[in-house]
Structures are given as structure tokens and as C-alpha cells.
């Protein structure tokens, strides 16, 4: 069984972040705030090729937090954890 997933080309592997139910002060959050699809980048492929055959590296790195599109990507399950594999250009927003 695989122990690590390594994406190829310009693919990115992310793990969805679970939104907290309440704030640090103890205020309960409504379920509508959970619609933010944020994820942590787990692994990044080496990048794609342009028309001249030159390597175009992926602009994301492991540990970055991104917003996911509502639909898209391929769900992958490994060792009781669920991941989403996306093409690099589908990650449009970085969370800082």
C-alpha cells in the first residue's frame, strides 16, 4: 500500500481544512460559515511544460493555504484521510 502520494506534472494534492464550530472566545458559529472551501497544500508536482518544452514550475509550495473551487478535482483516500487532487491553475486564491 502507498504511504505517500506524489502528484505528477502540474498537479497539486490538498487536504481540506475543517472549519471550527466555535471561536476561541466560545462563540458558536452558524453552519453558513462552513461554506469556505479552504485547504492545505500537501504535495506539489514538478510543473508542466510550455510549447518550447521548458519546465514551468508550480507557484504553490507545501504548506500553503488555498481556496478550492466548489466543483472539480479528484478525491483520493489514503490511510483514513481524504485528499483532493487538482490541476495547478484551478487554485485561484491564496489565503494569507
CATH H level: which superfamily? GroES chaperonin
| Whole-number tally of structural domains | 1
Q: Which parts are unreliable, with pLDDT below 50 for 5 consecutive residues or more? A: none
Output the CATH class name: Mainly Beta
What would you say the CATH architecture is?
A: Roll
- Using the coordinates shown, work out and report the CATH topology: 10 Kd Chaperonin, Protein Cpn10, Chain O
Shape: elongated
Strand proportion? 35-45%
> What kind of sheet is the major sheet?
6 strands, antiparallel
Number of helices: 0
Spatial order of strands in the largest sheet? 6-7-1-2-5-8
How far is the N terminus from the C terminus? 35 Å
What is the N-to-C succession of helices and strands?
Answer: EEEEEEEE
Query: Class by helix and strand content?
Result: mainly beta
Give a count of the beta strands, DSSP E runs of length 2 or more.
8
Helical percent range? Answer: under 10%
Q: Work out the radius of gyration.
A: 15 Å
Mean of the pLDDT scores?
78
Explain what you see.
With 96 residues, this protein is mainly beta. It has one domain (11-16, 34-95): 10 Kd Chaperonin, Protein Cpn10, Chain O (Roll). The protein is built from no helices and 8 strands. The chain has strands at residues 11-16, 38-44, 48-49, 55-56, 65-67, 74-78, 81-87, 93-95. The strands form 2 sheets. The chain has a 6-stranded antiparallel beta sheet, with no helix packed on it. The protein is elongated. It starts with 10 loop residues before the first strand and ends with a strand. The mean pLDDT is 78.
Amino acid at each position: 500500500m502507498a504511504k505517500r502520494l506524489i502528484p505528477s506534472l502540474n498537479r497539486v494534492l490538498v487536504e481540506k481544512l475543517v472549519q471550527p464550530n466555535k471561536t476561541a472566545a466560545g462563540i458558536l458559529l452558524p453552519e453558513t460559515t462552513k461554506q469556505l472551501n479552504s485547504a492545505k497544500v500537501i504535495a506539489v508536482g514538478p510543473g508542466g511544460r510550455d510549447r518550447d518544452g521548458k519546465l514551468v514550475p508550480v507557484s504553490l509550495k507545501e504548506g500553503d493555504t488555498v481556496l478550492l473551487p466548489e466543483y472539480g478535482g479528484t478525491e483520493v483516500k489514503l490511510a483514513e484521510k481524504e485528499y483532493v487532487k487538482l490541476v495547478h491553475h484551478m487554485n485561484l486564491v491564496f489565503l494569507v
